[in-house]
């Protein structure tokens, strides 16, 4: 059992995962941002590994990726920044990234490094399930890392059940078939999708992401899943911040009030 499993054993609802881009807005902001996220009361930290072509992400996160890369962020630098994170960070940490830089780094070397520094799981949106099962699942299991797949309103019931069967952390429910940060608020159409998946009684917990930005949307999403993921709205807070620690805490506490 890693920290993700322990979290959802103890917290069945209103789990808040906060996404931010490593090395943004400044290169050395990664660890201070993580510490502030935990101190503010969030439940999971999702670190975005900057990539030049983040296909699932909207302009806000794309811009943060480009700035982080210009700052000099890399996988090697990220692992240096978080090598001692478990001295000050106790909640689950998930890395979200794309396959290309990880394959270049070496998948097994990457997974080994994740375990070494205390990462609990991965979200790799462009990793096909069959490739994961055929080539990587054994390695994920060996290093005690959970792999999170995404589902959307267009995902068929059979596919959702296949994802549920082959997941061992949580399922990332994309609230709409669009990029991150594309819309605000939650529509009736989205709620019917949330209910449909809720009624499937999946074995894995579900976190809802895309379009979650404040206390209202967080509360609504949490009625139909085990909690929610906030990314673009948090990135905007960080980008505009004059006092990173205070602004992170103020924002997260306003969401979970």
From TrEMBL:
SUPFAM superfamilies listed in its UniProt record: Ribulose-phoshate binding barrel
Catalytic reactions of this protein: (1S,2R)-1-C-(indol-3-yl)glycerol 3-phosphate + L-serine = D-glyceraldehyde 3-phosphate + L-tryptophan + H2O
Keyword Amino-acid biosynthesis: yes
TM region(s), chain numbering: none
Active-site residues per Swiss-Prot or TrEMBL entry: 46, 57
Keywords: Amino-acid biosynthesis, Aromatic amino acid biosynthesis, Lyase, Tryptophan biosynthesis
Pathway(s): Amino-acid biosynthesis; L-tryptophan biosynthesis; L-tryptophan from chorismate: step 5/5
E.C. designation(s): 4.2.1.20
Gene3D superfamilies: Aldolase class I
Tree of life domain: Bacteria
GO molecular function: tryptophan synthase activity
Function: The alpha subunit is responsible for the aldol cleavage of indoleglycerol phosphate to indole and glyceraldehyde 3-phosphate.
NCBIfam families: trpA (TIGR00262)
Family listed: Belongs to the TrpA family.
Subunit structure: Tetramer of two alpha and two beta chains.
Protein name: Tryptophan synthase alpha chain
